[in-house]
Write a structure and sequence with these properties.
alpha/beta, 8-stranded mixed β-sheet, 7 helices, D-Amino Acid Oxidase, Chain A, domain 2, binds flavin-adenine dinucleotide, FAD/NAD(P)-binding domain
Amino acid sequence: MFKKYDVIVIGAGPAGCTAAKRLAENGFHVLLVEKLKLPREKSCSGILIQKSMTLVKQYYGKDIPLSAMCTPIENRGMIFTDSHGKEFRFEQEGRNIWRSVFDHWLAQQAVMAGAALLDDTMVTGCIESPGLVTVTMHKEGTSSFGAAAECVIDCEGVVGRLKRQLMKIEPSYIKTYQVFYEGISSLDPHYFYAYLQPEFSGYDAWFNVKDDMPVLGVSMPAADSVKTDSVIRTGADEAAICAYYQRFLSYMKENHGLCLKKKIREERWLMPQIKPGCPIDLGRGRVFFAGEAAGFLNPMGEGISAGMESGACIADAIIQTHHFKEIDKIYEFYEKNSAALHQYMQRQWRFLGEISSAFSCMKQ
Ligand SMILES: Cc1cc2nc3c(=O)[nH]c(=O)nc-3n(C[C@H](O)[C@H](O)[C@H](O)COP(=O)(O)OP(=O)(O)OC[C@H]3O[C@@H](n4cnc5c(N)ncnc54)[C@H](O)[C@@H]3O)c2cc1C
């Protein structure tokens, strides 16, 4: 009764688009489902580090389109201030992009490779029966409908509804709050600035510039559990995050010539809280996880490269296995393919733990 695919990929972010594109261009019958209408908004600093640029070239065979860029187009690296106020500079070439345009472009590449795309469609459930996964979907204004596949790649991002359903766990999250302004500062807009002083955040605070707009952000561990797909704005967290933000704003005004004319917009989002050792989860049965849904995220919220790479790793594992009879083999290949990515992530977090007392637990 249901339309049948080889693979259904859930979520058109960097992980889902890369997995869908790679599978489709290798002859697999793929459906990519995205709950929001594309181009969709995703709170992000929009910095593509050098690794992300290399992966775009490798997986997509093209340069990032100019339409996805914002000024200054060139990002020259990160300037990072540790918990004691000591500055570290990491110089490397990157790009400054708008996520909505960039991710839409990734999804278009998947479609051009042959993947079917359903946007504005939420996956609401996923049931595994022998040799098959049935996925239920809902599009506003229509009744629910289903599709079946040999397997599913869940790339839902941070608040994975399916992952929470499947594993019956409530992961820990970091809440983020960032604000775009009309204004100026004395900082070089070619850099991304991260601040780990405990008075400015319970995790990290940041500053960057997009199309001449100064952007300030703060973050902290979420005190309340996230029971729905919406980002909760509640009591204790709200007061604390606002207090961090006000202190950070004053600091930037006093120390970095920040002069603001007008608030343009504010964004609240979540990130996974990465634990010591960086545990990841590759899936359950015929449902594989990739990107943030699997737990891949580098320090300072750098997750676009990890999303694309893990999406490619699971796609390659399926391609290498050729068929869906031996699911264990797919896991074996996925683990092998993603080992270098996992080690990279562990090294990055360990390094952060070594240079910043705020993250000393990550040294393990
Ligand atoms: C404030 C902030 C700043 C950041 N800045 C940077 C940065 O500068 N550089 C960087 O590399 N990383 C940055 N990140 C991290 C980066 O955004 C993520 O790590 C990355 O987007 C993860 O990719 P993903 O494909 O796993 O998930 P996502 O990009 O989150 O994509 C998941 C997709 O799945 C869809 N979806 C979810 N549930 C369903 C469902 N049930 N059915 C259908 N679709 C569904 C969502 O709508 C979404 O489009 C930042 C994160 C935050 C919060």
